[in-house]
Amino acid sequence: MMRALLFATAALVATPAMAQDHSDHSQHTPTPAPAPASTDDHSQHGAMDHSTMDHSQHGQMDHSAMGHDIMVEIPSGPPPARAFEGPEHAADLYFDPQEMAQARAYSRTSHSGMTTGTVLVERLEAQVADGHDSYVWDVSAWYGTGTDKIVFKSEGEGEFGGSVEEAEAQLLWGHAVGPFVDLQVGMRVDAEPDTTAHAVVGFAGLAPYNVHFDLAAFVSDEGDVTARIEAEHDMRLSQRLILQPRAEAEIAAQDIPERGISSGFYHVTAGARLRYEIAREFAPYVGVEYATGDEPDRVALLLGLRTWF
To answer: Nearest-CA neighbor of 140 among 115, 158, 122, 125?
Structure first.
C-alpha cells in the first residue's frame, strides 16, 4: 500500500514540470515536422468572412465549359437529297421487292379495299293514332368497299286492313367524298300512289355530334323537283338501352296537284324511339311521333323493331 502511494505522489509532482514554458527552444534540437499534404493553407477557411465576397457575377459564369451547354441547332429547309436515296420502301433492301409489292397490295385489299355488305331494317313499326293505324318500313342495304358501294333503299307505309299508300325503291352508287360522307347518285321508282321514276343525287353519312343524315334531291320524269332530309341521333343510355330522336322533312320546289302537294315543306315528322338491344342485331323499340303536312296533324304511338345482318 505504501509503495502505491509513493508512485501516485511522484506522478503528481511530475505533472507541473511537464507544463513548464517551452518558448525557449534554443537549447533543444528541433524535431523535423512532416511535409504538408498541400501548399494551401486551409487552417483559416472556417474563419473566413464570406460577407465580403462578391457573388454578383455568379449568374454570368460560362457554364458551357462545364458540360451544361446542351442546345442543339435544328436545321431548317427541305430534307437533304441524301434522304431520298435508296428504295421507296426500306423493306426492299432486305426482302425480294416483288414479294414485298405483292404483300403491300394484299394489305391494301384486305383493309381499305375489303368488300362488305349489310342489310339494315331501320324501321319496321306499327303507328297507332286516333282513327289512323298504319305500318311503316324503312330498309337499306349496301355492298362494296369503304370508297365505292352499291346502295339499295326502300320505304313506304300503308293502313292496317287497307292498301299500301306509299312505296318506293332506290338503287344508288355511293362514293366516299370524305371520311364520313358518301355522295349517292342513281334512280328512284315509286310504286304507289303512282308509278313514277326519279333521278337521285344526295349525300349520306355522319355529321358532327354523331348525327346520321340522309339528304337527297329528286327529279321526276315529269320534271317535278323534290327533296328529302332525314336526321337521327343515337343517345346511349346504357350498354343496351338507346334513345333515338329522329326528324324527317320533305320539300317540293313547285305544286304537284295530282299528288296534292304544295310547294315548300309539305310533310314533316319528328319523334323519338327508345329501343332495347336484346342482341346488337335485334332491338325492339317503342316511341312517339308527331306528323304534319299532307294529312291532318297527328300524334302516333310507335311499336317496332330495328334489326340488321
So the answer is: 122
**Bridge partners, 134 (sequence order):** 127, 159
Name the 3-class secondary structure at 242.
strand
Q: Is the pTM of this model over 0.85?
A: no
DSSP state of 33: P
Q: Give the model's confidence band at 7: pLDDT under 50 very low, under 70 low, under 90 confident, else very high.
A: very low
- Across residues 167-175, what is the average pLDDT? 98
Nearest to 147 by CA among 113, 123, 124: 113
CA distance 231 to 120: 16
Sequence-separated (6 or more) residues with CB below 8 Å from residue 143? 115, 116, 117, 149, 150
String of DSSP letters for 125-171: EEEE-TT--EEEEEEEEEEE-SSEEEEEEEEEEEETTS-EEEEEEEE
Q: Is the peptide bond before 193 cis (omega within 30 degrees of 0)?
A: yes
pLDDT at residue number 80:
84
Q: Which residue has the cell 353519312?
A: 205
